Amino acid sequence: MKIGYSIPSNRGVTDTVALMALAKKAEALGCHSVWVSEHLFHSAYVAERLGDRPYWDPLTMLTAAACATSRVRLGTSVLVLPWHDPPRLGKMIATIDHLSAGRVDFGVGVATTEDEFNNLGVDFKTRGKRADEVLGALQALWTQDVPEFQGEFYNYSGLKFSPKPLQKPYPPILVGGSSPAALRRIVRYGDGWHTLRQSPDEVAAGLAKLKGMMTEAGRDPDSLKVSISIEIKFEDTSPSRPANERRGLRGTDADIAETLRAFRDAGVQEAVISIGSTDVAEHEAVLTRVMTKVVPGI
Q1: Any residues with CB less than 8 A from the CB of 187 and at least 6 apart, and which?
Q2: What crossing angle do the helices spanning 58-68 and 86-99 adopt, rounded to 10°?
Q3: In this predicted structure, what is the pLDDT of residue 256?
Q4: What's the predicted TM-score (pTM) here?
Q5: What distance in Å separates the CA atoms of residue 135 and residue 190, rounded to the nearest whole number?
Q6: CB-count exposure of residue 51 (10 Å: 0-12, 13-18, 19+)
Q7: Is residue 174 within 8 Å of residue 105, measured between CB atoms?
Q8: What's the CA gap between 196 and 181, in Å, rounded?
Q9: Mean pLDDT in runs of 10 for the chain (298 residues)?
C-alpha cells in the first residue's frame, strides 16, 4: 500500500517555510504523495479547529511543494469545485502540472459547509450540478484546442485555451465522497475514488457498488484509483473494534499496520494520513514512525 501525507496547511501552522520542509521530509522518508485541503472561510468545524489561525490557499501551497520536491505526487484533498471558475482553475492546475513535471492528482468534492456557500454567493442546493459542470468544462478546456462547452452555469466557445496539462489527457480526477451522487460523478468523470471517514468494510461495500456501476457504464472498473484520507494517532491502548470496522488509524505500530492491511484488502491502494496537530516537530516524528516502523509491517 502507498502512503500519502496531508501537509497541515489546514491546521493553523503559521510558518509556511516549515510546511514546505514537511513536504520535503515526506519525500525523503519515501511517501508516495503529499496533499493539501481547501476551505475559504473559517466555517463550522474549521472555525472550531482554527480560531484566528490561518488556513493557507491549497494551490499556492501545492505550487510551492512542486518546487520543493522532485518525486512525490501532489494531491488536492479536496478542491471544492462549485467555488471555482473553470478556466482559471484549469489554467492553475495545468501550470502546476508543468511545474511539477506531471505529478498532480486532482482531488475534487462539493463540501457541506452551507454558511460558506452563502458567503461566497453560491447556491448550496446546486453544488452537485455545478461540480459536474465544472468537471465537464475542465475536460473540454484541457483536451480541445478551441474548447466547446455548453451548460447551465458555464459556456465556452470560439477561443483557444492553454496551457494544456502535461499529463494526458489531464491529471487524474479523484472524486471525494461516498453519496450516490458522488458515486455517479466518479463513473461519469472520475479516474479514482478519494474517500474519507469510512471503515474497510464500508470502503469494500462502496467499491463493489461502484465497480458494478462502472461496468454497466462500459468503463473498466480495474482502472479505478482508490485512496482514503485518514487521521492517525499513536496510542498505547489498542482499538476496541476489529480492524475491518475502524475509521481511523489509532493504537500501536502493530495496530495501525493491521488497520492499513484491512484497508488494503478492502481495495484501497493509498492511505493519505493526516495528523491532528499544529506542532511541526510532532508531524516529523509521527511521519518518521509511520514510514520506518509501521510501513514495514503492512
Answers
A1: 210, 213, 214, 217, 219
A2: 10
A3: 98
A4: 0.97
A5: 9
A6: exposed
A7: yes
A8: 16
A9: 98 98 98 98 95 97 98 98 98 98 98 97 98 98 98 97 98 97 98 97 98 98 97 97 98 98 98 98 98 97
Cell of 219: 468503463
Measured CA to CA, the distance from residue 196 to residue 150 in angstroms comes to 32
Nearest to 37 by CA among 5, 81, 6, 74: 6
Q: What is the pLDDT of residue 120?
A: 97
Residue 193: other Cβ atoms inside 10 A:
25
Q: How many domains does the chain have?
A: 1
Residue-wise DSSP of 214-271: HHHTT--GGG-EEEEEEEEEE-SSPPSS-GGG-SSEEESHHHHHHHHHHHHHHT--EE
- By DSSP bridging, strand 73-76 and strand 33-36 are parallel
Domain that holds residue 176: 2-297
118: which 3 cell numbers?
452563502
What confidence score (pLDDT) does residue 65 get? Answer: 98
Q: What's the CATH code of the domain at 75? A: 3.20.20.30
Q: How far apart are CA 16 and CA 114, in angstroms?
A: 29
